[in-house]
Amino acid sequence: MRLLLLLVTMSPYKVPASRFLAAAFAPLVAIAIWVVPVPAAAHVELDSASPALNAQLDVAPSEVVLRFAHELTIPAVEVTVTDRAKRAVTVGAATVDGAVVTQPLKQNLLPEVYQVSYRVISDDGHALTNSYTFTVGSPPALSSVEVKKVSNGSGVWWFFGGAVLFILVGVVAAVVVMSVRRRHWR
Questions:
Q1: CATH number at residue 128
Q2: How many domains does the chain have?
Q3: What is the C-alpha separation between 160 and 169, in angstroms, rounded?
Q4: How far is residue 177's CA from residue 171's CA, in Å, rounded to a whole number?
């Protein structure tokens, strides 16, 4: 700080000290924003499921239970279980108890492949949408249900967003420095 004050008082430019300090601190602030760690956002991840992913069951389950890594404080949960023909086999709405989501199913499910699709919202507002399959009995081998995994979109976007912010702050700092220098030479 003393070095900056010394530079301001000894500056050959006849500019207000506040502008000089702003131009000097802009790159430091940009670096601090880039370097200081940001707390990790609490994204929801599925810990376990019953029936499990690709499970082969002899007896049809009465419900699907999804256990997540974190408690779901936002109760906006969607769970659908469908057969090969995309007909829903769920009964009623899913219930949320902490980190556990339970979706009741119809009784006496036929032997075939079923798809469980779910969508939950994390504390920071990010949605997790995913699906998996399980099989009851020995279904006909003619068809299978495609398993879709949809990314929640996190990760690389934080890096690119930070890089863009860093570049923008650098451009603004350069414009401020250039305008200060132009005024001095006029």
A1: 2.60.40.1220
A2: 1
A3: 14
A4: 10
Structural domain span for residue 87: 46-136
142 in any annotated domain: no
| pTM of this structure | 0.55
- Residue 166 has what pLDDT? 79
Q: Which helix H or strand E contains 78, and what residues bound it?
A: strand 78-82
Residue 77 lies in a domain: yes
10-residue mean pLDDT series, the chain (186 residues): 53 59 68 61 81 94 93 84 96 92 94 95 81 87 52 58 78 74 64
Q: Is residue 83 part of a domain?
A: yes
* Residue 181 Cα to chain centre, angstroms: 43
pLDDT of residue 90: 96
DSSP-based three-state secondary structure for 121 = strand
